[in-house]
């Protein structure tokens, strides 16, 4: 059975012929998505109360699979501006959602009623295709509190720098990457910027996952081919499974009934509204005074990392079940005064709010390595060199904030199969470690690369820069801003030494 499938795939998409190795790669890519799906939905299983708890049990409905011709015809019948081809890679991903991980998929089907209408409305306001909403399925499994192993956070899995670049507030109390509405606006702006560069939704979806720099490298290494399937083998491993995962999620959201899958009803109200407050409140105060389950409030307001709504510094939104809206408006004074000395005691508030929320990965069965901190190191660099999360490093080594010292020894846990690969990192130079991680080797401080002019700065392009990377270095600047201000084409082609005009943030 494997040989005809591979031949069909090669004929349709002109992928390089790798015989048996292709099957291994495709299977590994779908297994990677399985593990990611497990990690992203784990919090939902722990924290979401269900109205029909029996659906959390091992599914008793028979798993249904169909011939390739049926999958192909169904995908063809879905109206989408994103091309939805069918091949053995896509089939493997469909089987993850409709077969192997159908229990997790039930949760996503339940959560879509809460998030899809909001996403569709926001995307429509930006002129984006509504079907891009399915990206949230593969990004976060529709879990706004999801945190990946590398620190990507929220419904749209923004990294810290990208979230800040697109206007999201991220600090010790508020993380708007977890705010479904604000993060969706940021994702819409990001997607629009990417489309301005590539003018192809397949490449946009890939670039959203791994960044334009990696997509541009894959295009160059493939002889300037600008089709996802033609650059497939040049993309990072996770991204190779990203577009197939998107196609599979789109299929599964349309045809779950045909696979005997029943959505899981979750105990989060679909009918909600938002109130803007200008006073500090704790979610537990609201819960106690109004008799709203704390789990519901936390689920509706995941952006408040310590359950504190800091409305005193600037007006902040609180999402509530719509039936409580009127009472909340009239009872704000009572809520603010309820045990105020307890909830806003400075000693309590000075505790690290991220420690209590963070769930570290299980280190059982992992191999332990030791890294000795050198001058110029920071946790972000070290995490990238070992492909682990910054939060993991903090937890493993009892680090508060990001404070480390030269010669400090850090414990790092990796998969035993990767121990030999990562064991050499401690003995490499900074440049060697950066190159291994696929990161640029920064010789001087980036601040020295920009000269100023009234209202603008000029950025000097360095080797490895992309327009998107440069935009991330300047607050409130997008890739489209740079392209338009400098008269660059949609290709975003720049060269080393070129000076780009960047508008200063107001």
- Contiguous uncertain segments of 5+ residues: 1-28, 41-59, 347-358, 442-452
Strand content bin: 5-15%
The largest β sheet comes out as: 3 strands, antiparallel
| Mean residue pLDDT | 79
Q: Per CATH, which architecture of the largest domain?
A: Orthogonal Bundle
**Rg calculated over all Cα atoms:** 24 Å
Number of helices: 25
Q: Which of globular, elongated, flat, extended, rod-shaped describes the shape?
A: globular
The number of domains: 4
Helices and strands: which structural class? Answer: mainly alpha
What is the straight-line distance between the termini?
61 Å
**CATH top level class name of the largest domain:** Mainly Alpha
How much helicity do the residues have? 40-55%
| Count of distinct strands | 9
The CATH topology of the largest domain comes to Lysozyme
| Largest sheet strand order | 7-8-9
Provide structural commentary.
It is a single chain. The chain is mainly alpha-helical. It folds into four domains: 25-259, Lysozyme (Orthogonal Bundle); 272-357, no CATH class; 367-436, LysM domain (Membrane-bound Lytic Murein Transglycosylase D, Chain A), CATH 3.10.350; 446-503, LysM domain (Membrane-bound Lytic Murein Transglycosylase D, Chain A, Roll). Helix content is 47%, strand content 9%. The strands form four sheets. A three-stranded antiparallel beta sheet has the order 7-8-9. Helix 2 packs parallel to helix 4, helix 4 crosses helix 12 (242-255) and helix 8 (180-198) crosses helix 9 (201-210). The N and C termini lie far apart (61 Å).
